[in-house]
Amino acid sequence: MLxxxxxxxxxxxRKIPGSRANIDHIFVSPRGVWVVxxxxxxxxxxxxxxxxxxxxxxxxxRLRIAGRASDRxxxxxxxxxxxxxxxxxxxxxxxAALCFVDADWPLFGxxxxxxxxxxxxxxxxxxxxxxxxxxxxxIDVDWASxxxxxxxxxx
Length: 155
Fold this sequence. Notes:
This protein is an alpha+beta fold and 155 residues long.
């Protein structure tokens, strides 16, 4: 996984207070915070599915892995992102990602967004995180990292 991003900080395996669950990775950069839930699905292909609606309008975006609905993964990382947002305040941009290690990704492309959650491989995620490098800084990395480390201790 990523150990750091340009001028940013990585926090790994953080406890969720009052729960046995954890947050796999939190990446803090000057342009925002990413909450990443890493999954190992060897040889299985994550894909975006649109269900319901008429002519592509309305309906629901769903994550499917090897043909099975996997909405619980999206819900889980969105819940983790909400915890990080609550810890930092709503003025800090927090994004969520599902990072599938050893999945069956197509040779070209493959990454997608479902319900606002980025879904991709470690390489795709790194590209997404570092593509924001030119944007104006919006947060103090040291402050945000220290606050998250204090509120979400190491597991």
